[in-house]
């Protein structure tokens, strides 16, 4: 499928100022974060993923709509399966993980750099891609 042929990084978001992270990139724990990511990527709601994980201050509404259209062109059906296929504890409450979502031969790869604080989990950085190599190169 088209998604497996593309080898470009679709986007990556870096850490945002603390003020933005306080409202967007913070979850009450890993389970809440995992549920959010699985729910929204499985249904191809990439707009909400971008906004909630920190892109609200990085993209205009038009750019986010354009990204959603681009993603809809690459992944035309909701994903039926998903898994965490690589997770590393980096120490100090910092971890990174790679997730994969698929239906048939259509794959979506997701990367996140996470920080577990005392009472919450912060998404520091994330990326989506139609190719596993750029995601695996982060490990």
State the major sheet.
6 strands, antiparallel
Low-confidence stretches: 1-21
Fraction of residues in helices? 25-40%
Oligomer: single chain
N-to-C span: 26 Å
**Shape label:** globular
What structural category arises from helix and sheet content?
Answer: alpha+beta
What's the average pLDDT?
86
- Output the helix-strand order: HEHEHHHEEEEH
User: How many β-strand stretches?
Assistant: 6
**Strand residue content:** 25-35%
Determine the number of helices (DSSP H or I, runs of at least 4 residues). Answer: 6
Please give the radius of gyration in angstroms. 14 Å
Topology, element by element:
Elements (H helix, E strand, L loop, with lengths): L1 H4 L3 E5 L4 H6 L2 E2 L2 H13 L3 H7 L8 H14 L6 E11 L2 E10 L2 E11 L4 E9 L2 H5 L3
Antiparallel strand pairs: 1-6, 2-6, 3-4, 4-5, 5-6
How would you describe this structure to a colleague?
- The protein has 139 residues and is α+β, with helices and mostly antiparallel strands.
- Helices cover 35% and strands 35% of the residues.
- The chain contains six helices and six strands, in the order H-E-H-E-H-H-H-E-E-E-E-H.
- It has helices at residues 2-5, 18-23, 30-42, 46-52, 61-74, 132-136, and strands spanning 9-13, 26-27, 81-91, 94-103, 106-116, 121-129.
- Strands 1, 2, 3, 4, 5 and 6 form a six-stranded antiparallel β-sheet that branches.
- The longest helix is centred in the middle third of the chain and has 14 residues, at 61-74.
- It is globular and about 40 Å long.
